[in-house]
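Marked as duplicate of an earlier ticket. Keeping the data here for the record.
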Amino acid sequence: MTAANWLQLGVLIVLVVAATPVLGRYLAKAFGSDGEKAPGDRVFLPVERLVYRASGVDPAREQRWQTYAFGVLGFSLFSVLFLYLLQRVQDWLPLNPTGVANVPEALSFNTATSFVTNTNWQNYAPENTASHLLQMSGLAVQNFASAAVGLAVAIALIRGLTRRRSATVGNFWVDLTRGTTRVLIPIAFVFALVFVSQGVIQNFQGFTHASTLEGAVQAIAGGPFASQEAIKLLGTNGGGPLNANAAHPFENPNGLVNLLQMFAILVIPFALTYTFGRFAKNQKQGWAVFAAMFGLWLASALIATAFETGGNPQLDRAGVTQQVTATQSGGNMEGKEVRFGAAGCGVYAATTTGTSTGSVNCFHDSMTPGGGAVPLVNIMLGEVSPGGVGAGLYGMLVFAILSVFIAGLMVGRTPEYLGKKIQAPEMKLIVLYILAVPVVVLGLAGASVLTDTARSSILNPGPHGLTEIAYAFTSASNNNGSAFAGLTGNTDWFNTTLGLAMLAGRFLLMVPLLALAGSLARKQTVPASVGTFPTDTPLFAGLLTGVVVIVVGLTYFPVLALGPVVEQLGL
């Protein structure tokens, strides 16, 4: 890494650490942790009251976990149907300057489930498939809505952990509204203005046709890019308005924007750990979770960067120089943007796959096998380093409860977390949460390897082809959305199976999680004793990190060994 790369990483770390308590405190107040008025009530309350009145919601009425879950499922089902319909009729609607046709059925299903589940997997070239109306009123709206749903569910789990003898976990519609109006919209608005000032495109034009120096005609896309770019990053969505995503200069024009994009991705997931500490009235609890998340993210960023800046050993043996010089940035430059280089790819890839953000500024399929394994493993971890908006925190809290259960077995004592006894009902829900995604990933990946139709989509047979399939289903099931580009995903098989994987990875986790929140909320807290395992210490942060790595390693090691590991050894 060059000095500039180290400086960018250092600035990113400083920004994240500095913003965590500031935004975390604001989030806690916005969702009512202290029982006091939230900042901005004078501005936001009239808007929220109008929303409640129009939708018939009583903001003072809280819900049991079952009602909360029905709200999540009902809202998401309506969103899928609306977005599916919008794609099927976009050719007959306004704001379609490029005249794109209606989206086919299987692709419409895949895209609708993708954006509603915060996955943003894109089996299409957006500039040639989606109209401006679809981008703005369909895809960008779901970038807000899906992130707000994840945020609401995380807050519900926090309430379950921190309340005593409560039959309710909050009101989904109130949490959804507050997450959108008080958090996502204002922050995304600021990021969009900054992006526009740095050259990110924001207009309503279609294609501009220009003649190149060689005499060819080039079609240059236009559209409302900056506004969608801001929320796709802040909401850890990832689906961009251009096919090249954040490698395109219209979305990511310079190093400053690249830095701000990574900051936008990380800021809410890390800040939620501080919010958790505020609800728990013990800030050390939040910092312990933060430390585990931060350690996993930083380690993955450094490992991926080391592989990519190290380059390809076969080129070294052939006498090709891969070192940094005045004329080249060095390392493995295949699939990289020259503006960001191999090091910029490593940090960005670790950031987007450590969260549920499918954005890319380089192509993961062109990374070295070891470097490409890092994003894959990040997603397999459940994207808890630091994870998506809401999803990262509630995923890590599940691992935290599992960690205290393991610690309790070691000392022969009933485990406790925040004074709540962790018993058989909670552990059944946690086991369901942990096993649901691996069953979907490995089952559908195995079926794809055995199916002739699916195998014909693999452009790189052998270990790399297996990695591409495993990456696709891992990305879909964990609601990430990035891909290894060597797999032809726009087929009926992959559009359907990946869509089902996205739905399973979102809602087969959220429903048990809300049941867990309801179970914990009903419990009375017990006072700490000499036998209580402390969960606000560096020791617990280390245990939590170890449990995450070991559980995921035991689950996925065989497929990793047959894919990226054997491919790296082959170099």
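See parent ticket for discussion. The two ends are 22 Å apart (CA to CA).
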